User: What shape does this take?
Amino acid sequence: MLTSEHAIVEFEGGRARPDRLLQGPHGHYVEYARRMLAIYRDGLGRRRRDLHHDVVAVFADEADCPPRRIAAFCKLLDDAAEFQGDRRGQASPLRLRVFAQAAPLHPLVGERDKLFEHAEDEVKQAIATEMGMPWPAIDEALYADVPAYQRLESFEGYPDAQAMLSRYNVAQVQACLYRAEAMTVEAAEDFQTLLRHAKLARLLHRITPAGPSRYRIELSGPASVLRATRGYGVNFARFLPALLACKGWRMSATIRTPWKGTARLTLSEADGLRSHLPPASEFDSGVEEAFAARFGPRQEGWQLIREGEVLHAGQTVFIPDFLFRHDDGTEVSLEIVGFWTPEYLAAKRHTLELFASRRLLLALPERSVRPGASPGENVILYKTALKLAPVLEALERLRAESRP
Amino acid sequence: MDARQAHPITLSFDRGTLLLRGPGRFRQPPGPDVWVWDDRVGAWRTDAIRYARVKQALREPSAGTLVDEVPAPPPVHWPKVDGHVLRAEQEEALAAWLGAGGRGQVVMPTGTGKTEVALAAMARTGTATLVVAPVRDLMYQWHRRILRGLGYDAGVLGDTLYNVQPVTVTTYDSACIHMARLGDRFGLVIFDEEHHLPGPARREAALMSTAAMRLGLTATPERSDGRHADLEDLIGPVVYRLALEKVRGKTLAEFEVVRIPVALSDSEQGAYDGYSRQVRHFVSERRKEQPGYTWQDLCAESGRDPAARLAMKAYRLKCAIEDRAAEKLRVLEDLFRLHVGQPTIVFAGSNAMAMEVSRRFLVPTILSHTPKKERLAVLEGFAQGRFPVLVANRVLDEGVDVPAAKVAVVIGGQASTRQAQQRLGRVLRKTGQARAVLYEVVCLDTHEIERSRQRRRSDAYERTRHRRV
Assistant: This one.
């Protein structure tokens, strides 16, 4: 990730626009990225400052490139590289040793005279002889631990030049989010992934419906109800790659401008920013996937929507695997338990109790139920695959019950 | 059984805030009007800093049964408190702070022993304490002072270390990051150089802590943005203020400022003038079309406009010539000759210049990346006279104790009023009768001259003696 010193954001008309390299106007940046990657790939053993110097040189004739953008490229390259620090910690003791030897001879003068008889070059030569190392080698080793002088040890890099540029674009949005106070995501799918990553990023949510199978998720931190705070900017930035890997979303964030106003940052799937994370996996288990394939999009007046309903109470969220919507408007959710453990089933039971008022079907593997136990009326047991008939039967029963 | 007892209200700490839960959504909580209903979690929420106030109100019998889940800060037993006697003004400061209920700011000039006041406050209160310092050098210095003064090996949070103890030292940046997790562990928080606290991000460190006792220390509480007014809420009122005039010549040495102009070499001057012309030409061209064109405009444009970018680059190169003028090293040699035998600190304008001085004269540096052990060795070696000279970049600008330095040389760096004052503070510590001297080595016919004049106009330099060489 970049730091806020690398952020390039344009604030105009109440909007925040993070720097973005586009295929058209910045097409030639692909070539720059190739050259930058080559500098690092061919630069094993070179010092960090020399690598940076060469990266700067790539843009010598480029009119359209702010210094911050170059610094950001350097940061992204460094992030994908390992530098040889002064791992055995030799520089520090060397300094103390050399300086201690020179201390009684202070000051080292350019030319000696009657009062000061310790000339710089003679003292340095004497120390070098004593240490059995030529002076230029000592001079170089003296500050070898300073980051700028560290040498490149390995470079993982990016898959290709385009990947590096798209990482840059994402990193600039993240750097802009460091200034964010709140974020709202409107989504129609992938809720599971969205909310799980929001939780991982230690954000709190507030969920409100925004249309059929659409929800608005407001994300913020604990203190956000007390005052507008930028304290959760890093959390928003961390959440971003997960959001980008999802489908069917729109995001809007409130950004604090440097002159104490606010601006809006909006983004959607249509902006085409690519995440380096894999896309959200569609199905939790093979049982679900097989069932969805068997059911198809419609069956006897019922439409099948994956993760179509978000049930929530406070910070507890339950997203059943499927929502069935009948042509007459009846809605029923289905949760399929594939993989299970006793603890998992207990937790699931607790969640279901919390949302007991909803029309909800539960499909359980037969093995998970004690022989002879009565599973309850909205529970469908299955052996290896969940069949259509018992599900449709249960759907129709619930539809009949819901009619006045 | 009383219905209220059956349904107690609970107060808990949640990531830098307090949560108050009761049966259902109970009415407005008693006490100060600081609570906000948080529908995300179904509870009342407020900043952790309000803990002492809300706790008092919730203890009233009418408030019902309270279950307070916020942990009480553990008492701390100091292994050994050194019997160091405080000076009269330090004693006054401590009494004023204790009298204000352990909440307030102590304003004392650099070098008058703020740290000793704080250590005495820690010894008296005997509670879990977090000390927040601006930079890691200061953080380590606090660690040493606590070890020496109270015999306690404090935890260190920051500089890639995460060792939290009942008594812990940290930096403002680390405090902001970790206070959400640690805000309920301390009874006393000490904010060293408290003028760093009111920034929009850093103030979170004060808001997210439940500590009832707070001590702010500074020589210069005023901020140019006026935010110092917020310190009263974040820490407490100013309980003690000692004016610089009262201590000059008593605990602080007399001091003198000497400016040494140096000339750039012919080749440096040639390059410097070239870059200057380039910048001037660019700006004057722009002003023909935009009369109010400013330096800020240039910075803003340097992204889009290659000409502006070149002008910016020329400006940077110009600064680099100023900073690292070869003549400065020669002047430095003269000053070292002049003050041989007197501990001397050199303030460089950049890491590069600091290392250049170090490699030329083989004298130690304190830079931001200097390892902890080496810092200690260098500072101690300097204090004990084993190292004649210490070179620092901006790290030493503030608060770090550099004992007994009588000579300071500023060879670069743009200084604000506070920086100048802090720098002076470094050489002002009273050591015998010798007068302290601050040299400013500035390039002739460059911007450095102007900056030196600005420094001189600031309060810190008022009534000091100026001499030109």
